[in-house]
Design a protein that fits this description.
mainly alpha; 2 domains; four-stranded mixed β-sheet
Length: about 525
């Protein structure tokens, strides 16, 4: 293994960007992507943005990046371009500086998470991937550039709650390495002693601590939050196994070639894999521990990050494939920093003979394992890109285009379910508000408080009637479910069109027009 050549890195990056741009042009963004855009676009100031973010469950670095973009244009397409550029920089840094071989780098660039989940689906997780990569680049000379390390981990803590867990793990391990490592890791002790001015190191640790603290404070939910409010501290064997299975979802993301490909896993459709899934996950964790055993920094980073993420999935929110991907990112990060982590000598044989036969076997096995895992990722990534081209991801974009083509974008609108209909609002372009019966309020982005409650179809129509009477104009009703012919006739509603059958199942839409009284 060795550092990649600059030309190979540039070539792979341009190829990645070409494939990514073509795929992104076929990707219809869904509500979680549009939610971030609407928050950035419709917040009047940075302070107003952070007030709106308190229900989101994520820190605000991604939204802060989007805010100036939303002042350039009303179109969320600029967010897709920016997001793809972030992942393109990640690809270049990985290929240029990581210790993996050329084939592994190629597989990484076209793996499921890099090519699709963190490149095409425009979310805050791509920033986390980029910052983890930058940390790995800095790791070799971390104590010479510790202020930069501190800045990177400060920002990493503010990208997502999952990246925050990883930042906490890295911060704890670096602190332990610096304070206690000199007793057991002589090469590290010599490196630290050679640094005359220790102030940059303590400034770096201060930045890490401030970043973690401010991110945790920002994530503290308000009393009226209405999303993922519960905590599960009870031991349930089935739930433990379900959480452990997430390891296989993250390490082996082989996508099913169907219209519902997103978040699917082809392997779980086979009975044999279901039988071995839990033991396989434990084996992957155990083998990873063996790989990192002689390098405490890599080992502790892997253990604290992995168990921290699994604990969060168990206690708070199990999440989706985009969240589980951090389990694999942690493994790959530890494989990267392994070579530059100080060695702990476990026996005299290690001191006299260098790498033992066991070490060499583990190194070869580790290389084979990483390659096999990356092959699975590449299969998943290429499949996801193929399915993205073949199927409509969300009908929010096409619904908005239909509304604009019919000249109805300036009508009063009522939408339910709000989280789905917000996708349409984002694609309508200019800032506007729509009435959401869930929460009984006007808005664009969804406010995840406990005022939101499910509403009946009858209630939706009643709210539309009230709005029509107040404004004496037609009202456009956007639903992600159908109304019966009897109900349409009863309220003199005109059925306009429907868009159904998207990858995101509940982001198909039915449009109705309520005439002015």
């Amino acid at each position: 293994m060795g550092k990649g050549n600059k030309h190979y890195a540039l070539g792979l990056t341009f190829l990645f960007l070409a494939v990514g741009a073509f795929t992104a042009s076929h990707h219809e963004m869904w509500r979680d992507e549009i939610q971030a855009w609407l928050l950035a676009r419709d917040s009047t100031s940075v302070f107003n943005l952070f007030a709106n973010l308190k229900y989101e469950g994520h820190p605000g670095l991604w939204h802060l990046c989007l805010m100036p973009l939303s002042r350039i244009t009303d179109s969320p397409v600029i967010m897709q371009m920016f997001h793809l550029l972030i992942t393109g920089v990640t690809v270049y840094l990985f290929v240029r500086y990581s210790p993996f071989n050329w084939f592994q780098k190629l597989l990484f660039c076209f793996g499921y998470f890099v090519l699709y989940e963190y490149a095409i689906v425009a979310r805050n997780y791509a920033l986390g991937l980029l910052l983890i990569t930058v940390f790995c680049v800095l790791f070799r000379e971390r104590y010479k550039r510790f202020i930069w390390v501190g800045c990177v981990l400060f920002l990493l803590a503010h990208t997502s709650v999952h990246a925050l867990i990883v930042a906490i793990a890295i911060g704890v391990v670096l602190c332990c390495e610096y304070v206690f490592g000199s007793r057991f890791l002589k090469p590290l002790n010599q490196e630290i002693e050679a640094i005359e001015d220790k102030r940059p190191i303590w400034i770096g640790f201060a930045l890490i601590g401030i970043g973690i603290t401010t991110a945790v404070l920002q994530l503290n939910p308000p009393p009226d939050t209405g999303f993922a409010v519960g905590w599960n501290f009870n031991y349930e064997a089935k739930r433990v196994n379900d959480i452990v299975k997430l390891i296989s979802r993250a390490y082996l993301p082989i996508t099913s070639p169907t219209s519902g490909f997103w978040g699917s896993n082809l392997l779980t459709t086979y009975a044999f894999f279901q039988t071995i899934q839990v033991p396989l996950c434990y084996f992957l964790m155990f083998f990873s521990v063996l790989l990192f055993l002689k390098r405490p920094t890599a080992l502790l980073t892997y253990l604290i990050s992995t168990f921290g993420l699994l604990a969060f999935f168990y206690i708070k929110y199990q999440g989706s494939i985009r969240h589980h991907g951090f389990l694999f990112l942690v493994f790959l990060m530890c494989c990267w920093i392994y070579r530059d982590s100080p060695v702990i000598n476990l026996s005299r044989t290690d001191q006299q003979d260098g790498d033992s036969i066991v070490d060499r076997v583990l190194n070869v096995s580790g290389t084979v394992l990483v390659t096999l895992l990356l092959i699975c990722h590449a299969i998943g990534g290429i499949t996801a890109v193929r399915m993205e081209h073949r199927h409509i991801f969300s009908y929010g974009k096409l619904t908005a285009e239909y509304i604009k083509s019919q000249g109805m974008q300036d009508l009063a609108m009522v939408g339910d379910k709000d989280s789905a209909v917000s996708t349409v609002v984002g694609y309508l372009g200019k800032p506007r508000q729509i009435y959401y019966p869930r929460g009984s309020r006007l808005g664009s982005f969804v406010r995840w408080d406990n005022a939101r409650a499910s509403v009946s179809k009858r209630r939706v129509i009643e709210e539309a009637l009230k709005l029509s009477s107040q404004n004496t104009q037609d009202v456009l009703i956007i639903l992600n479910h159908a109304l019966s012919a009897k109900r349409r006739k009863q309220h003199n509603l005109t059925f306009l069109t429907k868009f159904t059958g998207s990858t995101v199942r509940d982001e198909g839409f039915h449009l109705y027009l309520m005439p002015a009284p």
